[in-house]
Amino acid sequence: MVENGKTMQGILTIMEQTITIDRMGYGAEAVGRLENGKAVFVEGAAPGDVALLDIIEEKPSFARARIARLVEPSPLRVQPSCASTALCGGCPWAHLSYAAQLDAKRANVVAALSRTARFDKGRAEELVRPCLPSKRQWGYRNKLELGAALDERGAFQLGFRREGAHDVVSVDSCPLASAPIAKAPKALRGALRFAQGSQDLGIYRVGVRGSVRTRDVEIALWTKPGAFPRGHVAKTLKSALKATSIVRVMADPGKARKIKGVETLEGKGCWEERLGSARYLTSAPSFFQVNTAQAEKLVACVIEGLGGHVGEDGPEGLDGLLVADLYAGGGTFSVPLAQAGAEVLAVEAAGSSVRDLRRNADMNAVDVEVIGGDAARELPELGGLDALVVDPPRAGLADGVVESIAAAAPARAAYISCNPATWARDVARFENEGYRLASVQPVDLFPQTHHVEVASVFERL
Ligand SMILES: C[S@@+](CC[C@H](N)C(=O)[O-])C[C@H]1O[C@@H](n2cnc3c(N)ncnc32)[C@H](O)[C@@H]1O
């Protein structure tokens, strides 16, 4: 055992210890227990690994470690299909077999219910179905978000930003991305270097969306506001990735970026995708589910959860039901709900999504009443509802939303979540407000990562 030493790799080590890894954590890392009983989070480990660890951080209640030597590799390990995994951090579970990833995701949803919502373990186990697998375990993403930066020599770099880091990892391709956009990092790095020449165009992020269904490919250049040689950039990028749309989004970098404008440099100015029988046009700043085939399964969970059915001719069986779709985005659920015969009130805060949703309803020839605004503020104005759908961002539902839902008294509510922790907190709120959690379907939209989508249904008691 080494205390406060430096290993060969130069990692500052508090001490070393050999342990067996117990399970995957809720984030990217796996979890085991140190000899003193403290939980230890280990990047790149798998349940069943026996590993000598460098403990690099020790807090009062947990520790973090790196694998110094794999003494006995877990049988759940596989060789990751991407050589850049360790560099870019985009596939933190790629060293785990797909079956083990699905099991771990389901187990994490069960654990969230029993820990956070205080469900009895037996009830949680009974409610949570096996995680719906993604047919494509690689090549499933319809969107890549690339970071752009000038390196210390002033050379333009384009690649992935590791979570929480500023520098850009310049990979050439991404095997998580679907075929039309998989080679975008290299193709766009070259084209943008050429377009920029010796000037800095203020590009700090590039979004690329590609559909295998419609063949649409959109390149969105996120730039600081200011002068921009539109024609020259459009001409240079035109043939890159066979783009059908090139847009520039003007906004200052940083988390609170406020969009100051979007201009079309070339082509359609939006990106088209199909889910089931519905068509969706999405503007560059708007949200759209990144795994198209799995998003269709989410739609089916919502329609069926509210008592409808997705048949050969599309969604059906919700005739005359008054349904609110909160956090509606561009209408992923609103459009099929309306196709199924429901009267839909959709609430969405982002201006670009509100415009997309209105256009998508028209394009699919359905009626959706679209309300632009904050879901928490608008909900009490909607009155009584037969059913409701909520699909909030990772933070979950704002304080007071579940109470407002209870006041609107829908008989059923479908809650779609990308964060089991905040979802479980809200489950407890629903159960306190006279609702019973009736079904929980984890859906894997993000193979090779720890992320999981939860499609759940509540019934009013
Ligand atoms: C996870 S996305 C889901 C969108 C849509 N349901 C879908 O599946 O495509 C969450 C959406 O909530 C919107 N949003 C975020 N905060 C909101 C708020 N306070 N009120 C209404 N919508 C909000 C975002 O703009 C985004 O479109």
Write the layout of secondary structure elements.
Elements: E1 5-6, E2 12-13, E3 15-24, E4 30-33, E5 39-42, E6 50-58, E7 62-72, H1 85-88, H2 98-115, H3 121-127, E8 143-150, E9 156-161, E10 168-169, H4 184-196, E11 203-210, E12 217-223, H5 230-237, E13 245-251, E14 259-267, E15 271-275, E16 278-282, H6 292-305, E17 309-311, E18 314-316, E19 322-326, H7 334-339, E20 343-348, H8 351-363, E21 368-372, H9 375-378, E22 387-390, H10 401-408, E23 412-417, H11 420-432, E24 435-443, E25 453-460
Parallel strand pairs: 5-7, 12-13, 19-20, 19-22, 20-21, 22-23
Antiparallel strand pairs: 1-2, 3-4, 3-6, 4-5, 6-7, 8-9, 8-11, 9-10, 11-12, 13-14, 15-16, 17-18, 23-25, 24-25
Helix pairs in contact: 2-3, 2-11, 4-5
Write up this protein.
There is one protein chain. The chain has helices at residues 85-88, 98-115, 121-127, 184-196, 230-237, 292-305, 334-339, 351-363, 375-378, 401-408, 420-432; strands at 5-6, 12-13, 15-24, 30-33, 39-42, 50-58, 62-72, 143-150, 156-161, 168-169, 203-210, 217-223, 245-251, 259-267, 271-275, 278-282, 309-311, 314-316, 322-326, 343-348, 368-372, 387-390, 412-417, 435-443, 453-460. By secondary structure, the protein is α+β, with helices and mostly antiparallel strands. It has 3 domains: 16-72, OB fold (Dihydrolipoamide Acetyltransferase, E2P) (Beta Barrel); 108-135 and 291-460, 3-Layer(aba) Sandwich (Rossmann fold), CATH 3.40.50; 143-274, OB fold (Dihydrolipoamide Acetyltransferase, E2P) (Beta Barrel). The strands form 6 sheets. The chain has a 7-stranded mixed sheet with strand order 10-9-8-11-12-13-14. Residues 6-10 have low confidence and may be disordered. The structure holds S-adenosylmethionine. S-adenosylmethionine binds at residues 287-289, 327-329, 332-333, 347-350, 353, 374-375, 391-393.
